Predict the 3D structure of the following.
Amino acid sequence: MTRTVLCVDSTARVSSVATAIEADDSLTALEATSVADAVEQLETEPVVCVVTAYDLSDGTGLDIVDAIRQASPQTPCVLFTDVSPGDIETASFEELIVEYLNRDLPDADDRLSFIVNDIIDHSAQVGFLAPDDEDQRLETLAQYDIDTLPIEESFDRLTDLIADHFGAAVAFIGLIEEDEENFLACTGADWDSLTREDTMCTHSMLQEDVMVVEDIADDKRFNKNEQLENLGIVSYAGANMTAPNGQVIGQVCVLDHEPRDYSASEQDTLGQYAETAMEILELRQSLRDERVSEDEVAETDAHPETKSAAETELEAEQ
């Protein structure tokens, strides 16, 4: 499978950059000669890396970096330029994987394809989108003692119902943890977990509404994901499981092995199923907390010596 790289440079130099990229058989090049042209291609083409000059006819390479941040922040970028790093505002690279290569180096063209492949591999291994308040989200998730909650049968019934309602090949309920998504129930497939890099829910959880991908072959975020291809995933719809404090801790999703869309009514129904899953989780957690509290009270009554001085004093006053 070849990797598509967008090369952005002046009309006089862009072809030489594309030639350097395609010297590697695993890479194929698209050409753009302006910021506007590059932005348009980023929105429509399945690009896995961008190689851009600094000085462009309608802006700079920083404008390309900003476009990547807005459109596809997981896409790595190589700044291929003769402009000194000291003259570049590197703060613009925050939260992006950006490599700098001085094109005046004697072997710059030979090194370019190697750096592009390396930066793509690096971004695939460590790069995934996360909400700005990821720490607070993980703290919220940790409050649910999933391993001790009797939710398996309820969630199995729920995913059976969801798969049947939508006529979907697969329906699952998954919690999105720090590095992976763990499936609490999955109808239509025998899946336990997916890494955050591979799961589509990493993107879906960042949307307030249901995320629908009618055909991953047409979506540059996912059409190079070999894991999704191996699982036979072609279409996807995912709705957030949102805790009472507003943090998204998981997803309720339906998948198919062929392209399909979901109407506004169907998306609303999927959102209701996600709310139901969250309500089940909340109920089970509340019952567990109450039972633990009752056990602690019973233990204290059985062993008065464990009572605190304040509790003993309070009982004496009563």
The mean pLDDT is 85.
